[in-house]
Amino acid sequence: MLNRRTYRVVDGERIEGTWRPIFINNGGTYVLTDLLIYADGMIDCWDTVDLDGLRTKLEQGWIATRIEPGARASAGDLAGWVMHDASVWIDPDDFLVQVADQIDRLNDRPDSTGRCLLALERYLTSRSDADRRTLAGLYLAIPAMDRRYALGDMDHKDWPLRVVCTEAGDLLIGEGAAGHRPVVTHEMRQVAFDYFAERDRSVAEYRRREPDDPSQPRRAPVQLNAVVFPKGWPKDAGVLVLRNEYPAPIEHAGRLYPTVTHAYWALSTRDPEVAERIRTAPRPHDAAQIAEGTARRTHWSDMRAAVMAALLRAKYAQHPALADQLLATGDAPIRYTGLGSDYWLTGGQKGANWIGRLLELVRAELTAQREGFPTGTGDATR
Question: 31 by DSSP, 3-state: which?
């Protein structure tokens, strides 16, 4: 339920989000609804707030973490009922942390559990008391109902983590009355350390066997925003050399085109006179404007992705320095923005980002080629 995704659009930019069910205390009636949580930290609970605003809503009881017996409840037009024996499993503080955790996950940052596990790695290496105390604090910062899932082991749950957090001779850290928590011994701690050592060995073995690991960290997205340089492109344009308007002449079918944009629009028409006017247009913008008034090739919409892919391959094959720039983006998602077709661009609610996707494809092909792996790519524009 915590992995569901939604989004909202702000100034043409898609802001990723998720949601979770909540009860809102609306004048004494508990209304079952959704709390919408977004990557930019904004939260919608019939009012748009940030985490501080959410804390206020919890303090006011607007978002209910306690339900009065006999209270009425509803789920919109679906149903209504009376609460007779309601159990709420989370308190306001833990609820706030869970929402903050969801914001962290939307931004690919470690959440409270992730921060605890990073501290666990440090402590297992150092075995210093200072690192143990840090680990214990981060363990207790995880919402109580989420702690048992921290290790992803439903047989042992969080027991080994609780033990290594606790100094020998102290009561076991975590939930439970003092009379029900054991005193941790040196033997218990050794068993817990052995558990983590065995777990590390198992993980290392699994990774050696795993031929294709999609969980490896990815770099932050590369944003290729449309930029106008009135005095011409600067000598060092950085990652913007990956844009199609960048002046990197490409040769195709015996003709030289100033940019990918020129080539794409010239190839979109079968009229040789118009194609030549597009090819020799002073700027990429002029090339696109000339093409606007010209009929496209038959089935152009069905073939245009192949044409663009072939032109991008030509650009980076004919300009090794630009290929190096593309490869330097690693495995980062490439987002290509601007004004024009939603088919090619990202942004808004319909952007398919096909230029960005094709750049990622060409990048993968270049990597494979430099590793001596044949990609078998051909020229789809002939």
Answer: strand
Q: What is the 3-state secondary structure (H, E, C) of 230-288?
A: CCCCCCCCHHHHHCCCCCCCEEECCEEECCHHHHHHHHCCCCHHHHHHHHCCCCHHHHH
pTM: 0.63
What distance in Å separates the CA atoms of residue 267 and residue 364, rounded to the nearest whole number?
25
Task: Compute the distance between CA of residue 335 and CA of residue 357 in angstroms, rounded to an integer.
Answer: 8
- Least Cα distance to 251 among 229, 234, 232, 266 occurs for 266
Residue carrying structure tokens 């080539």: 263
Query: Hey, what domains does the chain have and what are their CATH numbers?
Result: 6-106 (no CATH), 112-209 (no CATH), 222-370 (1.10.357.40)
- Short-list 81, 329, 350, CA closest to 220: 329
C-alpha distances (whole Å) from 9 to each of 6, 54, 349 are 11, 21, 7
225-243: pLDDT as tens digits: 988 888 899 989 999 999 9
Contacts of 101 (CB under 8 A, 6+ apart): 111, 112, 113, 143, 146
